Amino acid sequence: MxxxxxxxxxxxxxxxxxxxxxxxxxxxxxxxxxxxxxxxxSAVLIKDSTGKMTGILRTEQNMTEYKLKESIIIEQNAIxxxxxxMSMLGEMAGGIAHEINNPLAIISGTIHVLRKMITxxxxxxxxxxxxxxxxxxxxxxxxxxxxxxxxxxxxxDGEKFTPTSIEDCLNDVLGVCSEKFNSHGIExxxxxxxxxxxxxxxxxxxxxxxxxxxxxxxxxDVVNMLEExxxxxxxxxxxxxxxxxxxxxxxGIPVEIQEKIFQPFFTTKEIGKGTGxxxxxxxxxxxxxxxxxxxxxxxxxxSLVICIPRKQNIEKKGLQE
Length: 321
Prior knowledge:
Elements: H1 6-19, E1 23-30, E2 36-47, E3 53-62, H2 64-91, H3 93-119, H4 125-153, E4 162-165, H5 166-183, E5 187-191, E6 200-203, H6 205-223, E7 230-237, E8 241-248, H7 278-288, E9 292-295, E10 302-309, H8 314-320
Parallel strand pairs: 5-7
Antiparallel strand pairs: 1-2, 2-3, 4-6, 7-8, 8-10, 9-10
Helix pairs in contact: 3-4, 3-5, 4-5, 5-6, 6-7
């Protein structure tokens, strides 16, 4: 038996004997050739008519093949999730270039004007200060874009829950995609009361930001083909919950596919444009947050709603993991 498993197995045997509780334990054997066998064992006490223990009935089930398949499934799911995240970021590549190129063009243009003014002797302190302020604001805008992209594209394996402000949740996604929306004439409405922007919620920040970004990208793909173009983000907090709504001007999801949109590999996008995993993986991430992710069927527009606890039972989650 593997030395790592021995303490838990001995504890189970102790409880079986002293407390007469049912023995159920999973552990590993290591054979002399180094191969490992996974076993699921159970045991109960055998008693005679007087209640005296006369023996123990024990069974073992070889779980090695099951464990191997389970590890393969977990690995494949991780690959699929990573591929979906890369696909999402790939879809944004053009938008990212636009997000960065616009501020760079502003800085380049400002430098060009400054040089002409200096050459012609037209520069004065007041004008220069105004232009430097513009450059400074543009650099801050670029920093916001880069930080958002860095936060969203990082490896999220092993990510822990951390208190994150509503403002940071918004900045991670808006810094990355707002310019793309603007350039396509899409109005992005953010309905978040000023007094809650500094309030915090416990989230796995990278994964939660990826969910919000995925919903915004999905909304973009729909809205971009419509005459009226707007997307709205609504956030509401109570003492115990945080609710995020992503609403777009689309006329909702057809009834016949409402139950399918969260299924893996289901997509209404043309071949080659979507993986069909975005909403499915998003729901999985929200469920990790002990939350719900659903379609608001009563809204006249397309509205997806996320509701999560503001505080996570991190200690309990750590024990479960």
